[in-house]
Structures are given as structure tokens and as C-alpha cells.
Amino acid sequence: MSEETENMQTPEEPKKRSDLGTIFNDLLVFLKEILDIRFDTDKKATIEDVKDNISMKGHTAWVLVFSILIASIGLNVSSPAVVIGAMLISPLMGPILGVGLSIGINDIDTLKRSFVNLGVMIGLSLVTSFLFFKIPLFQDLTPEIEARIAPDARDVFIAISGGLALILAMSRRSKQTNTIAGVAIATALMPPLCVAGYGLAVWNWSYFSGAMFLFTINAIFIALATFLIVKFLQFPMVKYINSAKRKRVAQVASFLALVIFSFSVFQFYKLYKIDQFGINAKHLIEAMKQSGVHIFDSNKGDIDYKTKSIKLIIYGDAMSQSEVESWNNRLSEFELTNVKLNIEQSQSTDLQNKVEQLTDLYARNQEIIVSRDEKIKTSEDKIKELQNELDKYYRVPFSKVRDEARIVYSGLKTLSYGHVMTTNFQSIDTISIFAASWYDSIPNTKQQEVKLKLWLKTRLELDSVILIEQK
């Protein structure tokens, strides 16, 4: 029986393997269709579009100037919406894409034109932002400006991802304008140039150099992404009649591509190391806090990658020399080898006392706020209760009742209204009382009073009404 079973199962095994192989092949074909970027590529139109947008003269130059001015205003008032609007209308991408494209297709003339216009673009941007921030009214350091004075590794990923998305969107037969606009915002080329102009205006070299470094990183990786896509899609190379010149141009282009790529990798590695150093330093600080060391929150300058030093200000109980040495010995645990840990601490308790005083003051203020809120709530409840009581007294619109009663009962001479409080010593009730007097010409006043009482009760939607004759 077992041999028969084996004989029956054996022919099915190749079939199962075949089915799995078919499914795997189908999956590969499906993924290839989804991720294939060669489809719908218009190489000729893409090259023309990039070349048309390189020039920085005439109306393009003025659009750049005005967009830089708008972005500078947005940075000055810390308005991300204004900065985003400026990035949408700026023509900054043109020369940068031209550099990547020209290297990819060995077009030395376009490369020269791209570099010239890139220099014009940077010059116009710096001059415009410099003149704006040179006005003393606009020289405040805002959070939006401070956020763009130094790049990190994430800016590299944003730039290269944005560059890839941009050239892919432009290379389609049907241009994806929403993608192009989104890349202009994400890569954020304009704000660093504005901040560089701010650094020049306030004579702060670190702001200028940091912002220009951020712009350079973004520009290089956008150009690099363009170069990679152009090579991958096999854009047609520029042909020269002179074979020697063609070879020389190809060598120059390849050399520039290698230099840009090597510089990009080096800068990315450098930014990665800086970011990693900051993260490791924060882990060290958190570990020290958890062990009971009281540390003031560190500023950016307290964690310095260039000097490989970490400065910490300790308050409260002073650390002994052995504790300081112990933490210095543990730096390797946080991958902070060859790092100098500078600990500043006060021997007196003045600082701790001030912190405790501030803490007590904050706690008292919180108690006052809570107490005030409770009093306000109690007052609001009392006002609501009194309002309800007033509504009971004044819920009868007497002026309207007077006018309507004069029309319905022409013989009515006077009409008075009031409230009477009654009690059965178990509850208190309010009764509406009306007093009416009639002209002498009215023969049957009793019958008129019954009708008037019923009308008042219905008109005012009251449970009970007392009507008395006014003498």
C-alpha cells in the first residue's frame, strides 16, 4: 500500500514545482511591469525641456528675484506657507538638471551653459536676499532661518530621492506637474540660499557657510540623480564630427561624473558621522540622567563633532572625581571613542536652590490656576441658576400680551401683571396673576373675564393663571 502511495504522489511533485515556478515568474513579470521606468519615456522632449529651462535671463531672472524675495519674507516671519509658495514659482531646478543631463549625454556646451547660469542663479539669489536682510527691521533670527544653517544625512536622502522623482516625472510624454511641484518643495533649494544671504547681511560666516553647504549638498545630489536616470534610460549621446574631440569630451564628462559622485559619497559619509555622533552623545546624556545625574539640557554647541567634545553642565549634588572618570571610561560603550567629556559643576547649592524655588513657584501657580478655574466654574453655575430664576419671573412677554389683548378685547380698560410666590411648606411655586378692569359700557364683564383668563392661559402656555378684577 505504501509503494502504491509513493507511486501515486511522485508524478505530482514536478507539477507542483512547475506551478510554483510559474507563479514566481508571473510575479517577476508583474513587478517588472510596475517598476519599469522605460515605458512612456520621451527622451528627445526631455532633453529639450531641460535645455529650455537652463537660462537665467529676462523674465526667468525676474521670477527668480521675486521668488527669493518672497521666500526671504517667509523666513523672516517664520511662515512655512509663504516659503512653500516661493519654492513653487522659483526656477532654481533648471541649471542643476542641466548639469546632470549634460554630463550624462556628453554635451559639453550644455554643461558650460549650465554652470554659467547656475552661477548667475546663485549670485542673483544671494544679492536679493542680502539686500532684504540688510534692512535692520528684518535681521531677527527666526526658527525658520535657524533650521537651515546646517545639513544632515536626511537632507541627502531628500535631495537624491527628489532628483530621481523629478527627472522621472519630466521624462514622461505626459508631464506630471504635481510631482515636479512637490519635488520643488521637498528638496528646498531656495531657503538655504536665502539664509546664506542672511548670513552675509548680519556678517555671520557660520550661517553663510552652513546654508551654502546645505544648498550645495542638495544641488549635487539632484544633479547626480539626473545623471543616473539619464544613463539608465540610455539617453542618446551627443555626437561630434571629430572623433578625438568626442573621446576627449567623453573623458571629461566621465571624470566630472566620478568627481561629483566621489564628493557626494564623501559628504554623505561626513554628514552621517556627524549625525551619529550627536545621537550617541544624546544616548550618553540620557544614561547619565537615568543614573541620577542632574544635567541641564545641552545646546547645539555643547556637542561638537569637530573637536570631538561634549560639554555638560551639572547642577545639584556635585560629582566626585571618580564618578567623572567612570563616565569617561564608559564613553566607548556609546561609540564615543577619543571623545573628551567636559563636565562643569558648581560646588555650591545656589543653582539647585534656584531650581527648587522655580519648581515650587510653578507648583503654586498651578494650584492658583486650578483654584481659579474652580471658582470660575462655581460662579458660572450660580449665574446659570439665577438666569433660570429670572426666566421664571420674566418669561411672560407682557408688552406683546398688552397689544394683543387690546385688539381682542376692545372693552378692556387696564391690564396688570405680576408674580406671587406660594408655598405649602414643602415646595415653593410661582403663580402668574393678572388684574383687569373694564369700561362701564361692557354689560357682562364676568363672561369677558372667563374668556380673557382662558386666552391668557392658552396664549402664554401657562399651567395656571389667576385673573382678578381691578377696582
Textual characterization of the structure:
This protein has helices spanning 2-9, 12-35, 43-52, 59-76, 80-89, 93-104, 108-133, 143-146, 153-170, 177-187, 190-201, 205-232, 243-290, 321-329, 350-393, 398-408, 445-460; strands spanning 303-304, 309-314, 340-345, 412-423, 428-438, 465-469. The chain has 471 residues and is mainly α. A three-stranded mixed sheet has the order 1-2-3, with helices on one face. A three-stranded mixed sheet has the order 4-5-6, with helices on one face. Strand 1 (303-304) and strand 2 (309-314) form a beta hairpin. It starts with a helix and ends with a strand. Residues 1-9 have low confidence and may be disordered.
Summarize the structure.
This is DUF389 domain-containing protein. The chain is mainly alpha-helical. It contains 17 helices and 6 strands.
Question: What's the layout of helices and strands?
Answer:
Blueprint: H1 2-9, H2 12-35, H3 43-52, H4 59-76, H5 80-89, H6 93-104, H7 108-133, H8 143-146, H9 153-170, H10 177-187, H11 190-201, H12 205-232, H13 243-290, E1 303-304, E2 309-314, H14 321-329, E3 340-345, H15 350-393, H16 398-408, E4 412-423, E5 428-438, H17 445-460, E6 465-469
Parallel strand pairs: 2-3, 5-6
Antiparallel strand pairs: 1-2, 4-5
